[in-house]
Amino acid sequence: MSPSLQSLEQDIITCRKCPRLVAWREEVAQTKRKAYQDQTYWGKPVPGFGDPNARVMIVGLAPGAHGSNRTGRMFTGDASGDFLYPALQRGGFANQPTAEHIGDGLELSDVFITAVCRCVPPQNKPKVSEIKTCLPWLSAEIDLLPHLQGFVALGRIAFEGILRLYKPEHPQLGKLQFGHNAYYPLGQGLPWLLASYHPSQQNTLTGRLTVEMFDAVWEQVIQLLK
């Protein structure tokens, strides 16, 4: 990781700007899920991670209560990651299909994984004000990826969060509609934006998002990078 990304990571980890989220992430880390009673939860904001030369930024919603909030790494230790990483490995963006904990050997290639909200929110629903407070961290990560070409937004909130960063200077972006595998070039000199349903269990277990549908997103990414 580059020194600038390392420095930003430390700044993110120490953030306490949203009192409701600070209280909740720490409460979850203390009470824990029964299956993880013997583990020490992370219980802090979760920074992005991945290839510092990434051309693609994958943006999710927020850490999972007993996933990232436990492990300290995005999409690690929960069902969403169990769906995401096999797809990334099939696409050539990850060296293994599993993500269980920091230090498990997972390496990403050409992608950087992050989220619009760094702390686990109650009911997985951050307030708009909390997302707005958190977005400067995403903006800072974007600025530190010199080869960035595009975004994959996992879910509507991530999609809208990315647009929030670009809309002030590019008002035409307000008309973009979220949809699975929907692709938008944001404009001259700007990254492209590709949307996907979020790989949460409420989508994957109901068939709203299938393996084939998710693979189609990464196939599109591969074509866009050529």
Characterization of the model:
The chain has 226 residues and is α/β, with parallel strands linked by helices. It has one domain: Uracil-DNA glycosylase-like domain (Uracil-DNA Glycosylase, subunit E). It is 38% helix and 11% strand. It contains eight helices and six strands. The protein has helices at 3-13, 19-31, 68-71, 79-90, 128-143, 156-166, 201-204, 211-225, and strands at residues 49-50, 56-60, 111-115, 150-154, 183-185, 192-196. The chain has a six-stranded mixed sheet with strand order 1-3-2-4-6-5, sandwiched between helices. The longest helix has 16 residues, at 128-143. The two termini are 25 Å apart. The model has no long low-confidence stretch (mean pLDDT 96).
Q: Percent of residues in helical segments?
A: 25-40%
| Coarse structural class | alpha/beta
- In what range is the share of β-strand residues? 5-15%
CATH fold annotation? Uracil-DNA Glycosylase, subunit E
Output the helix-strand order. Answer: HHEEHHEHEHEEHH
**Strand count:** 6
| Second-tier CATH architecture | 3-Layer(aba) Sandwich
The CATH homologous superfamily is named Uracil-DNA glycosylase-like domain
What is the mean predicted local confidence, pLDDT? 96
CATH class: Alpha Beta
- Poorly predicted sequence stretches spanning 5 or more consecutive residues: none
Count of individual helical segments: 8
**How many strands, which pairing sense, and closed or not: the largest β-sheet?**
6 strands, mixed
If you compute it from the alpha carbons, what radius of gyration comes out, rounded to the nearest whole angstrom? 16 Å
Rough outline: globular
Distance between the termini: 25 Å
